[in-house]
Amino acid sequence: MSKVTLGRAGHGASTIGLDIAKHVFQVHGLNAVGAVVVRRKLRRDDVAAFFRTLPPCLIGIEACATGHHWARVLMALGHEVRLMSASYVKPYVKRQKNDATDAEAICEAVARPTMRFVPVKSEEQQSVLMLHRVRELLIRQRTMLVNALRGHLAEFGIVTRQGIVGFGMLIALVEDDGHNLIPPLARSALLSLIGQLREVHEKVGEMDRQIHAWHRSNELSRRLETIPGIGPITASAIAATVTDASLFKSGRQLAAWIGLVPRQNSSGGKDRLGRISKQGDPYLRRLLVVGAHAVLRFSRKARVPPTRWAAELLAKKPYNVVAVALANKMARIVWALMTTGKRFEAAAVL
After folding, report:
1. For the chain, which has fewer Cβ within 10 Å, the N-terminal or C-terminal residue?
2. What is the pLDDT of residues 307-331, one digit of tens each?
3. pTM for the whole structure
């Protein structure tokens, strides 16, 4: 197929597939009758200038790294931009995979009437999610440092109980130079670990304070906090991730998007349900499951079941299964609150 370039005036393309990358972008455009009118590469610095010359058109982009940024840039130029999951675009790729065929597949997929699109996030929403991602990374680093300190001290026969109390005993033991349980050279190395651990712990606390401050300033996040098992961390993560809850037809669709519904392998009119699919957003899923565990644990201690439904389910299902089921129910309540604008009422779910 011969190379097609856009005319001098830049008119004619009504639907464009844009395959984004770090430096080289691929454009594939169709006119109103489906004929190819543009197929070309663009350098990063030329993207905005190229689309500025075009009349408003429909642009499809895969929802991958920098996708939301370029969507905001092109929307500011007057275009209609739709983001799509890369897994939904893949079936439209013909033969060999390269930038040109990817752009063509994006152009084909964005015009499908049944395609599901990803809402474009604002800079504020991405900033809040960045706080969550950085906090999660710091917590993983803190856990690594704690495990490293425990493992190194175990080599000298020093083992304490689990939890913050036992770990505090280990720190006090390392910083106390009035004994000979730890060789001086090892003590010097472990003191470096402790210093880094304290620094990471302070940074996690700073991330928490910033997330809580944004949570208090956001009305939707405060409403989501009224749901049992959802605190400021989970509420702010949901408010920043789920841009438009009305795109989901029901609470079950939101739960399925998070990955809290059984995986299906049904055929011939027979329903075969397995474990949860674990698709969607693993961060939100983990927060909701942890929150469900907290609700069940509190109900055991206080001897007050969270709902009659959960109490009846605990009588016949394993604890972890009930926790995931409760997380699914929490996701459905989240959808209801986001679409109706109401606050959580305990009497409505008893």
Report:
1. N
2. 677 878 888 889 999 999 999 999 9
3. 0.86
